[in-house]
Structure formats: C-alpha cells, structure tokens
Write a structure and sequence with these properties.
heterodimer; A: 389 residues; alpha+beta; Naphthalene 1,2-dioxygenase Alpha Subunit, Chain A, domain 1; Rieske Iron-sulfur Protein; 8-stranded antiparallel beta sheet; 4-stranded antiparallel beta sheet; 10 helices; 18 strands; globular; B: 69 residues; mainly alpha; 4 helices; 74% helix
Chain lengths: 389, 69
Amino acid sequence: MHNKTNLELVRRHVSEANGLPNEHYTDPYVFDEEKNSVLFSQWAGLDVCSEIPEIGDSKPINFMGLPLFIIRDIENIVRVFQNTCRHRGMILVEETKKIQGAIRCPYHSWCYSTEGKLVSTPHVGGPGQNTDANIDRSKLSLVEIRSHIWRDVIWINVDGCAKPFEEVMANTIERWKELDQNLYHGGDDGKFSLKVQSNWKLAVENYCESYHLPWVHPGLNSYSRLEDHYNIVEYGSHSGQGSLVYRQLTDDKGQTFPDFENLSEKWSTGAEYIALYPNVLLGAHRDHAYAIILLPLSFSETIENIHIYYSKPDTDPFLKKKNKDQWKEIFEEDIFVVEGMQAGRLGIKFDGGRFSPKMDEPTHCFHDWVASKVDDFRNYNQQKTNVTE
Amino acid sequence: MSLNDKIIKAHQNNNFSLLVELYQEAAENVSTFQEQNFFRVQAYVYALEVGHYLTPILRRQLVNDGVEE
C-alpha cells in the first residue's frame, strides 16, 4: 500500500503554505495518481488544430501512456479518438498521415470512417462475408475522447466527467474575450519543441511567475523590469503574470506584425502569460500569441510543444523567424531551472519549499489547484470504497 | 507478370488504388461465389481506404450479394 502524500500544508494560505511534497515530482505512483486526478479528469491540452489543417489529416499522440489520435473528419470537425481498434486492440494510426477514405486497421482491416463509425468488417463472417449476426457495427465505433477547441488548442477531458469547457475556463475566456479573434499559425516558423528532464508541473510553476526574470532572463530584464510585471491569480482556475511594457518586434525598416483588431488600450504595451491548468501555457500580445502544450512523458520527463500565432495569415517570414528564435532562446533559458528543480527534489529533506507571499502567489495558486484535485480524487475513491464495503 | 505477382508487388508498394483494380480482376478469374466475394471484399476494403471512386459500386455489389451491410 502506497502512502498518500500530505497535502494539508499546501492548501494553507500562501503565507503559511509549503509547496507540493517531493513525491509529486519523483514518485511514479504519485505521477499515476496525478494522471487520473489532475490530467484525465480535467480539460487538458493535447495538441493544436493547425497540426491537422486539412480534411483527413490525422496524427497519433501518446498522452500519458494513453494512445490517441486526432483527425479532421470529412465534415471538417476535429475529433480525438482512442487509437485502438475495437477488434483486437491494434493501434490504428501509427504515423501522421492523410486518411483518404477510411481508417483501416493494419491487422484484419476493420475500417472506420473519419467520424469513427465502423464501416466494414471484412471476412468477419468467413471468407467473402463481411457480416456476422454477433457483430453489431453500431456498437463498435471508435472510442471518442471528449474534446473542445479554444484558441486553436485541442483540449480533452479523458474521463468525460468534467463540467463543460466554457464553464471551467470561464474566467480566462472572459479575461481574454477581446483577444477571441482568428489566430493564424506561423507554420514551420511558428512552432518548435523542447524536451526537458523535469516533471511537467515545474514547467507550469516556472512559467506563471515573474520573480525569476532578472536572474534567468537578464536580456528581457533590460527593458522589461521586474517592477513592470504583475501577478495574475485566480484560485481554482489559473495563474500567471502580466507585463506593462511589451515592446513589438521590428524588422530593419521598422515594420511590425499587424495587430489584432479593436484591442483596448491595455494591450498597447501590455502582455499576459497565463498557465491554464493543468498543462497549457498561453501568451498574448497585441500582435501575436502562443500556446505551449506540456506533454508529460514520465514523472521526470516532459515535452513542451510551442505554437505561435498571428493576426493575419501571411505575416512577414523574416519577422516570424526572428520572433520564433527570440521565444526559443527565452524558453531554452528556462531549461536549466526546471531541470535543476527536478534534481533538487531528490533532496529527501526538502519540504516542498516556502513561498514568497508577494512574488510566488501564482505558483502557490497552481499548487493549491493540484492539491485540491488530488484531494477530490482521493475522497471520491474513498467514498467508492466505503460503498463497496 | 502474373496477376498474383502484380498483387504482391502492389502490396509491397502500398499501391492501394492498384490493388482495387487487381483484386477486381482476380474476382473475375475465379469460379466459385465464395472466391469471387473474397476478392471483391479485398477490392472494397482498399477502395474504402483510399476513398476510391468505385467504393459505392463495390459496396452495392457486396450488399446485393448479401455479404455486406
């Protein structure tokens, strides 16, 4: 029997709280517990729609051990399916590809439409006979994972029990409602990936506070000082940081990216960076935005997929490249931090750490959220056990 | 090259559109109903996969023969 971590200290006021215990970063059992309580039961980011721009485009994704694939169906709807044939459990989509007609299982060729319906079961009733009285195709569609699209991100709720996305994310949607405009992916110069030897939560924690900027990003600090930032803290929802001094990127002729339309004055020099729990990090500016989707590979390994967006479809390639390189440099500067915090948590006497009530509240907000979801999960399981007994 | 060899080569090349044609041809060269349907099913499955223009016709044929829904 595995001992449950003590989360009582985490849930205290930030001035008295400790961070999540080491086991939340170093223990495969807790990683698995968080998989169910924090990622599968909530609205987690999986990928972006721009990865499958055309009808029939499909892409397999392993999400915390769960084999999934995304597909743009024949009606242009992005769907997420479990990547498992209903016959013998074979993986259906093994590589990114365009589905021309049907998804054919490579094992016995059961065929599914892009909408997930089982459309043919060749030789199932014997050679040359595609029907069998015991095979009811209407009950053997692919298992679809509940999904929602917002800001091009494909959000999934694996257990299917979360409240509707718009309800759960209402605070953030409201906060950024004027930014709710068409987003145009930057293409090959609008995406990159980083692999870090770190628990996924450390990437969230590092992202949502500005406290580290003078030390880790001294280049940024030359124009964007610590005092130009503010905390964004919505307990139970999201946290992050804002900047009051966003400076647009320019080319040799002083040209900038075109702005999103009809933004309020706040965005003229403002920028906001929000961690939308559990695993999506969003950035917004007057002229571009980005989404970072964290895909945990294990308790100590995470992929960060970064996608950058603009307000118009054909923005200047030179500027796009420059912008991508700039963000890549900044995010790479953070790698030693998240990997260092991961390594530091092998210190068995580390107690989760103390927060600066002034500077670390966005981080505590995230810890409190994780702890609350883990608590809910444990309570639910305890109730189930009590009923069984 | 024999039809059998052509089919093997098309499989090796993942040339599914060609397989639709070759399996139809195979269906025409066999004598029993079961053999014929076996090859028609093969043709139909690859037609489904590639979204071949003959898919609805092949399906109707199989449905009429009582071997497809």
